[in-house]
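ok new one. same drill as before - structure tokens go in, u give me an amino acid for every spot. 233 of them this time. try not to just spam alanines like last time pls lmao
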């Protein structure tokens, strides 16, 4: 098995994060610093940051309504609280699929299923996520059309988005935006390009899966139907 996949199946991180750990020299195989792209077997001893890991045999899937004020990574130089701090009763080693900014709330899936995490985050998958944004000022149809065509956010031109204006006035507007990408702070940067600062940002759906009645800070296991839906996206 490829090393990054082995790490992901051990519930340590996603494959992308595993590649970062390998590149930083934080992964060892049989006592030797691992190289990118190497393969391992069940007989190999794999260590991540000094801890021996083994692939999880039980796959688990959780849905969290993330509050503002939590990071989605496990390590943070500012020592800010992480989403896993909200879930202390989970015995398996899980990690978030994708990321939500510190100041962004909403739908977050956590699992130890490396294959699903890889699928949902790979750019080729083009899985849509829907966000509800409260933005400054009067957001107009002209603004919406610009985002729907794609905008240059500095280092990247975004793919066409789907935009719906929910409410608007001179001071602030509520807008739903559906995108299939996940660049750093992408939604906030998109609104900034058309002249609106994001005041609040909430992810409300992944594909057609929604939070429903899950309150902020609450989490639950995904149903088998939801798991099957995600795997078939």
């Amino acid at each position: 098995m490829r090393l990054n996949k082995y790490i992901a199946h051990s519930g340590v991180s996603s494959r992308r994060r595993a590649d970062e750990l390998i590149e930083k020299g934080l992964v060892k195989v049989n006592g030797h610093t691992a190289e990118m792209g190497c393969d391992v077997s069940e007989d190999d001893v794999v260590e991540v940051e000094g801890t021996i890991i083994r692939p999880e045999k039980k796959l688990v899937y959780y849905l969290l309504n993330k509050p503002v004020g939590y990071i989605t990574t496990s390590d943070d130089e500012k020592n800010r609280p992480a989403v896993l701090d909200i879930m202390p009763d989970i015995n398996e080693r899980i990690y978030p699929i994708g990321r939500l900014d510190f100041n962004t709330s909403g739908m977050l899936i956590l699992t130890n299923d490396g294959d699903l995490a890889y699928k949902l985050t790979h750019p080729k998958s083009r899985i849509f996520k829907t966000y509800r944004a409260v933005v400054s000022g009067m957001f107009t149809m002209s603004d919406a059309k610009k985002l729907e065509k794609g905008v240059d956010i500095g280092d990247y031109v975004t793919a066409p988005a789907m935009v719906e204006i929910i409410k608007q006035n001179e001071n602030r507007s509520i807008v739903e935006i559906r995108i299939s990408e996940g660049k750093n702070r992408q939604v906030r940067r998109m609104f900034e390009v058309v002249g609106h600062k994001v005041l609040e940002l909430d992810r409300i759906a992944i594909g057609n899966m929604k939070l429903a009645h899950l309150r902020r800070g609450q989490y639950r296991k995904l149903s088998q139907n939801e798991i099957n839906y995600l795997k078939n996206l």
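The longest strand covers residues 198-206. and btw Residues 15-23 form the longest helix (9 residues).
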